[in-house]
Write a structure and sequence with these properties.
The chain is α+β, with helices and mostly antiparallel strands. About 40% of the residues lie in helices and about 10% in strands. Belongs to the eukaryotic/archaeal RNase P protein component 1 family.
Length: about 180
Amino acid sequence: MTSVVYHAFSQKEAKELDVQHSGAQRAEAFVRAFLKRSMPRMSQQALEDHLQRKAVVLEYFTHRKQKEKRKKSKGLSAKQRRELRLFDIKPEQQRYSLFLPLHELWKQYIRDLCNGLKPDTQPQMIQAKLLKADLHGAIVSVTKSKCPSYVGVTGILLQETKHVFKIITKEDRLKD
C-alpha cells in the first residue's frame, strides 16, 4: 500500500516537474558551499574539521527582533473620573454606622502617631505632625464656613478634596 502512496519520481517526471533528486553528494556540496559563504575567513582545512565533528556555529547571524514593550495603560483623567462618578458615595451607603469602623481605625492611627512623640517634644513638632496627619475617619465639627448652614455640623470626615470636605452626620446626611 505504501508504494501506491509514496514512490520516487522517475527522471522524466522529475525533469517535467522541475524537481531535482537530492543525493548525498549534492547535499554535501551544498553544505560546503554554504559554510564557505557563511564563514569566509575560515580555512578549507578548518571547515573540513568542523564538518567531521558535526557542530557548526556560523559567524554571521541575525539578531532577534526585540519585542515591543507594552505600553502601560494610563489612569483615568479627572474629567473621566467625574463622569464615572467614582468618588460619589451612593445613597444606600450614606449611613453613619457604616463609617464608625473607619473612625476606630483613625483613632488607632492617631494613637500610633502620638506615641512616637515624647512628653518633652516641642509644641511646634506636635503641631507639624498633626497638620500632616490624615483626617479621613476623624470626627470633625465645622466652626467657620462661607455657607452659614454648615456651621455647627459634626460628623465623620469621609472625603477630602482640594476645596471640599465630605462629612457624614449622625442623622445619615452627607454634607459636602
